[in-house]
C-alpha cells in the first residue's frame, strides 16, 4: 500500500499535516537539546559550588596542639545556618590524636557517611556519592580527607548539597520551556497553515474558474496567476480552445455530410416513385432506410461531440413556454396546459436538443389526443442532479406490449396516422445520449404519459 493512499487527497491537508508534524518534531528535538544542556550546566554549577565550599571549609578549620578541631567557617551561604535546609557541612576526626567534631548549624543530627569499602577515595583523597538527608531529601556529598599537621593527623571534611532542590529547579525550567515552546509551536503552526492556505488560493481560483467554464458561465481561465500556476492556466485555455475547434469542425463536417447526402437521397426517392411498381418501391424503401440511418447516426455523432465538450446551459422553462405557445397556435382545437411547478431548472445541454425532445413529444401528444395535452416540469426530490419533463394526453395510449415497438426507429403502430415513425425513436436516442431515461406510462388524463429524466447543469 502506498503511503499517499493513507492520507486524504486534499493537497492543503497534506501540506499542513506534513508541516505540522515537522514543526512538532523540530520543537521536541529543540526542547530536548535545551533541557539537556540546562541540566548539564546546572549539574556542573552544582558540583563546582560544592567543591568551592569544600575548599573554603578546609581552609577555615585547623587543629590545636592537643588535636582539637577548631574553626568558624563562613561560607557566605545562609542555607548552612537554616535548620534542615538540605545544605550541610561536617568535619570529623579520622586518625588518632584528633578529637572533636564540627557541624553546620543546619545539620541538627548526624548524617552517616558511606563506607569506604563501598565508595573508595580517589587519588586526590576525594569521593562523592548521594545519600538521604535529614528531611528525606536527596543529598549530593563531596568528601575529602586532609592531613592537618606535621604529625600526619587526618580529618575528614564533608560538604553536602540538596540534590532534590536542584532537580526541582531543573523540572521547573523544563515546564516553562515546554510551555513556551508549545505556545510558540501553536502560533507557528497557525501562521504556517494560514500561509499555506493563502499560497494555495490561486489553485482555488483555478478550480472556481473551471467550475464556471463547466457550468457555461465562462469560456476560458481569466485572471492573473502566480508564475507556478500560470502555465497550468495557459495549457488549460489551450486545451479548451482546441476542444472548441474540434467540436466546431465536427459540426461542420456533420452539416456538410448531411447536405451532401440530402440531394442524392431525394433524387433516389423521386426516381423510385417515378419508376413505380415493385422495383420502384424497392428503391424508395431502401433510399428511405438510408435517409433514416444517415439522420440517426449524424444526430448521434453531433450529440456525442457536444457531450465530450464544455457543458452547455439551457433554461428549461422558457423552452417549454415557447413550444407550448407554438403548439397552441398550430392546434387551436386542443387544450394544451403547461405546469412549470415554480422550478428554475437549467438543462445541461444545447437548446436545440431540448427543443427536439419536447417538440417531438408535443407533436406526438397533439396527434393522438382527443382534446387535452398537459406538459409539466418537476425537480426530482431524491436526485438533485436531474429533472423530470412529462408530456401527457387523453388519447388511446399504448399498451404494455407495444411500448417497446413504439420506440423502434421508423415503427408506426397506426398506419392511418400521418408521420414517419421517428418521433419517439429520436427522443429516445437524444435522451440516451445525454445519459437520461425515457419512460412510457399511463396518464391520469387517460392516454399516454411520457416521462423524461435529464441531467441538470451544476450551479
Characterise the protein shown here.
With 459 residues, the protein is of the alpha+beta class. It has helices at residues 11-60, 163-199, 201-214, 230-275, 277-307, 316-330, 351-368, 403-406, 423-433, and strands at 62-63, 69-70, 88-93, 102-103, 126-132, 138-147, 154-162, 314-315, 335-339, 346-347, 372-379, 386-393, 437-442, 448-455. The chain has 3 domains: 28-169; 230-307; 314-455, Histidine kinase-like ATPase, C-terminal domain (Heat Shock Protein 90). It is 49% helix and 17% strand. The strands form 4 sheets. A 5-stranded antiparallel sheet has the order 4-3-7-6-5. It has a 5-stranded mixed sheet with strand order 9-11-12-14-13. Strands 1-2 form a two-stranded antiparallel sheet. α4 (230-275) runs antiparallel to α5 (277-307) and α7 runs antiparallel to α9. It starts with 10 loop residues before the first helix and ends with a strand.
The tally of structural domains comes to 3
Q: Helix content range of the residues, please? A: 40-55%
Q: Tell me about the largest β-sheet.
A: 5 strands, antiparallel
How many helical elements? 9
Rg over CA atoms, rounded to whole Å, is 50 Å
Task: Give the low-pLDDT segments.
Answer: 409-421
Topology, number of strands: 14
Return the structural class.
alpha+beta
Give the averaged pLDDT, no decimals: 83
**Globular, elongated, flat, extended or rod-shaped: what is the shape?**
rod-shaped
Q: What order do the helices and strands follow?
A: HEEEEEEEHHHHEHEEHEEHHEE
- The proportion of strand residues reads 15-25%
Kindly report the spatial arrangement of strands forming the biggest sheet. 4-3-7-6-5
What is the CA-CA span between the terminal residues?
37 Å
